[in-house]
Amino acid sequence: MMLFGGDYNPEQWIDDKNVLDEDIRRFHEMGINTVSVNIFSWSFLEPEEGRYDFSFLSSLLDRLYEEGISVNLATPSGARPKWLSDKYPEVLRVREDRTKMIFGERHNHCYTSPVYREKVRLIDEALSKEFGHHKAVIAWHISNEYGGECHCPLCQEAFHRWLEGRYDSISDLNRKWNNAFWSHIYDSFDSIDSPSSIGESKNPALSLEWKRFVTHQTVDFMNEEIKAVRKYSDLPVTTNMMYDYLGLDYQAFSDSLDFISWDNYPAWGTGFDGDDVLVAADNAMEHDYYRAMKDKPFILMESCPEATNWQPLSHLKRHGVMEAASLEAVAHGSDGVLFFQMRHGRGGYEKFHGALLDSSGCETRTIREARTLGNKLTALKDVIGTVNKPVAGIIRDTESRWAMEGSAGPRNKGLHYRDNLRRVYLGLRSSGLDADVIGPEHDFSAYRILVVPMLYMFRAGLAERLESFTADGGILVVTHWSGVVDEYDSIYPGKTPYGLSEVLGLRRAEIDALQDGAENVTIPVAGNGLGLRKNYTCSVLSEIPEVYSAEPILLYGNDFYKGLPVVTEHDYKKGRSYYIASMMEEDFYHDLFSSLIEKNGIEPIAKALPRGVFASERIGNGKRYIFLQNFSGNDVLLSSSLLNGKRIIGDGDILKPYDTFVFER
Ligand code: GLA
Ligand code: ZN
Questions:
Q1: Rounded distance from Cα 238 to ligand 1 centre (Å)
Q2: How far apart are CA 436 and CA 450, in angstroms?
Q3: How many of the other CB atoms lie within 10 Å of CB of 313?
């Protein structure tokens, strides 16, 4: 079954037995089949140190099982009881400014603290022993949205030992970090302080290594939790990740997890100046990142059926938006649609957060829309287990972004990384292709087109792999501000993008930062190889490449670099490469990829899609499932070629705003 349900926290109304009955009645009405429980229940499970009371959870799981509702069972480490930090203050975090925190909120434990690790291990094992074979439970939901960092003495010590394991000696570290600058030579690993606003915040290599350590330590903490639940249970494990979260490199979590899940809260109707085409694309790009982590279906673990309470505006979802957002996740590889949350809280910080059920007890618009969605998810059951297999990949690397955004220059007012990435992505999607958004370590062999947008850091070995991808016949597209530094944020000597000047037929020379709102214009070279004829705008950052053997496609139209190439093409062995030296407008990427598809005989999923209509394809079990979705805000008449195949969802040939058609081919 497609999982359908969400986070359920009934310990909030533990004294009112009628609520559970009422909720279950509504769950059946909406076709709910799965809930995630126990996420924030620790103080109920262990009211005093060492005294476990699982009676409420046990009766809840029994009841859910009787009702045919499955459970993602959470480990409760995301929020701890008060007694724990009162008795063991070491579990509290220390902030980067070295202030020690006091009890409050959630997601705030020291992930190094042996006491916290031990308390979590004990309760996780106890839960696993008690419920690891419970018939209602289908998966482990490990903790909740891991994140943040701790600078306590325990974490400092762990950081030192971790660094020690990574370098031959302290002088090796000093050299790799370029510590001769400002006379910042360290004489031992123990003398290194984590980055701080009251100390060292301007050593890029230190900042980068600290972030890597935070990821390492969080994964290590998670692995201990996984080990604990595995003691008595072999159910699949996941942890819920967040949108574009830069506190951790999520790629490092993937190997420990059986399936990927994430929490998705797009600002429909208000984000990107209310342009839902951009919201939809931005969101899809994130789904594609999570799917590509394992090249397998993932689970949309949280989403909001109504309005959130933490975004600038609690903007209600217009008719059809909840369904469109949910089916967008499925179109991109989710085998389920789960919400935060099943029922409104009565009090507390999230009492105004949207939910499937409210406290009125009445039939609501949300319930009606959820019922329809539930029926559609049932109709999509054969899609389960299939996956998107795009011919295009886009590299997105959190480590590179840490380094790029942590550096001073070339544009401290904003590099517009995600905006640039989204333009690339939209160009591929509007040309009718699906895309994988991949880490630099991902295998490239399945792709015809590989895009490297603003990949400032090339980790060891990457340039060689990009070279062979192109040499073997791939189409490589590299944009500005790529291949500049190594893993320690030191500039590569010689020509850059590092290792690619032969492949690209040029080198990066200068880079110009433009004012906010300022634009340059590009002029097509007559008879250029891509057949581009329009003038496009470019902005934010403009590189001036020194071109050797590459063919200019577009030239800058203004400024002192007027007439110099901004887009080039270069044949390299069996493949071809393109260099895009500035942040180009959205239309350019549409025209670029449409031309590449045409020239290289690549078969798109759909042709001639109007802006805001997206096509995706899930493949498997000898079938292909085509999803067409309309985020344009207008009715769209679809041509007969698009309507081909056995219809699973939708009627007629007009795709209305926020509607989805699904075909089996
Ligand atoms: C996150 C958390 C949930 C809840 C929602 C609210 O995703 O995991 O517990 O706070 O946000 O949107
Ligand atoms: Zn700590």
A1: 16
A2: 10
A3: 10
Nearest Cα to Cα of residue 664 among 617, 615, 616, 625: 625
Rounded to whole angstroms, how far apart are CA atoms 111 and 274? Answer: 39
| Residues lining ligand 1, Cβ inside 6 A | 144-145, 263, 265, 302, 308, 340, 350, 353
Q: If you take atom 10 of ligand 1, which residue's CA is the nearest one?
A: 350
How far from 634 is each of 238, 276, 428, 610, 611, CA to CA, in Å? 38, 12, 21, 10, 10
| End-to-end Cα separation, the chain, in angstroms | 21
Q: What separation in Å is there between the alpha carbon of 340 and the centre of ligand 1?
A: 7
Active site annotation includes 118: no
Mean pLDDT of 165-170: 98
> What atom of ligand 1 comes closest to residue 144's alpha carbon?
8
**Enclosing H/E stretch for 477:** strand 475-479
Measured N-to-C along each axis, helices 321-331 and 365-379 cross at an angle, to the nearest 10 degrees, of 30
- One-letter identity of residue 235: L
- Residue 140 has what pLDDT? 99
Write down the catalytic residue from 145, 149, 225, 617: 145
Which ligand 1 atom lies nearest to the CA of residue 309?
12
Catalytic residue among 46, 225, 302, 586: 302
What is the three-class DSSP state of 90? helix
Query: Would you call 254 exposed, middle or buried from its count of C-beta atoms within 10 A (0-12, 13-18, 19+)?
Result: middle
Over the stretch 70-112, which tens digit does the pLDDT of each residue have? 999 999 999 999 999 999 999 999 999 999 999 999 999 999 9
Joined together, the tokens standing for residue 363 give: 């039939």
Residue 455's nearest CA partner among 483, 435, 474, 427 is: 483
Band of residue 219 on the pLDDT scale cut at 50, 70, 90:
very high
Report which ligand 1 atom has the smallest distance to the Cα of 265: 12
Distance 163 CA to ligand 2 centre (A): 16
Nearest to 339 by CA among 630, 27, 616, 567: 27
Distance 93 CA to ligand 2 centre (A): 6
Residue 544 · residue 510 · CB < 8 Å: yes
Q: Is 551 considered catalytic here?
A: no
> For residue 64, what is the DSSP state?
H
Q: For atom 4 of ligand 1, which residue has the closest CA?
A: 340
Compute the C-alpha angle 491/496/497, nearest 5°: 105
Atom of ligand 1 lying closest to residue 302 CA: 7
